[in-house]
Write a structure and sequence with these properties.
Blueprint (H helix, E strand, L loop, with lengths): L1 E9 L2 E14 L4 E10 L2 E11 L4 E11 H8 L5 E14 L2 E6 L2 E7 L2 E9 L1 E6 L2 E5 L2 E9 L2 E9 L2 E5 L2 E5 L2 E4 L1
Length: 180
């Protein structure tokens, strides 16, 4: 392991790595990863899986991630004001800078701009990066409660949300939303 062993970043913005542990069996072709643990200002990841090739870097990982949303958006989506924390049990596969992450992110409490959301979940969420673009989709996004100023919504659902992150802004579209 290491402490204070570097930074991670995107588009010239950096986040400090607080700790890193890697365990597994490496060969000339790749690596069987028994544990990859990373703690940074973005959050913490605990992963297992395979590095299929070193060049180009190809991998398949199963992981649990606990993210600090304000730091994640500072690095990847500057104009999206998220706050709070989220957890995801995920699977990721990628080659070089292109990847796909799938899972079910959840948050007990989070903020989007001036809105506060409680018990948020994205079912069958997918985040992918292809050709330098980030795109996402989910079967359904739910929140037990959404509060925006004096407006309070209970049991809110957005069906098939999908969108992208472009020039630091997050764009979202959905065919239908429901409030019970």
């Amino acid at each position: 392991g290491c402490e204070g062993c570097g930074t991670v970043g995107a588009s010239g913005r950096r986040s400090r790595i607080k700790g890193l542990e890697i365990g597994g069996v490496a060969s000339q072709e790749g690596m069987a990863i028994s544990r990859l643990w990373l703690d940074s200002e973005l959050g913490e990841i605990d992963a297992r899986g395979e590095l299929d090739s070193w060049a180009p870097l190809g991998y398949e990982l199963d992981f649990v991630a606990d993210g600090r949303l304000a730091e994640v958006t500072r690095l990847f989506a500057l104009r999206t004001a998220l706050s709070g924390a989220a957890r995801c049990q995920c699977r990721s596969a990628g080659i070089d800078g292109e990847f796909e992450i799938s899972g079910r992110p959840v948050s007990t409490e989070m903020g989007i701009g001036k809105a506060r959301l409680e018990e948020v979940a994205l079912d069958r969420a997918v985040l992918r990066r292809t050709g330098g673009h980030l795109e996402f989709e989910s079967r359904v996004a739910t929140a037990r409660r959404v509060v925006i100023g004096g407006l309070r919504l209970n049991q809110a659902s957005i069906l098939r949300p999908r969108g992208s992150v472009q020039e630091g802004r997050t764009l979202v579209d959905s065919p239908q939303g429901l409030v019970k």
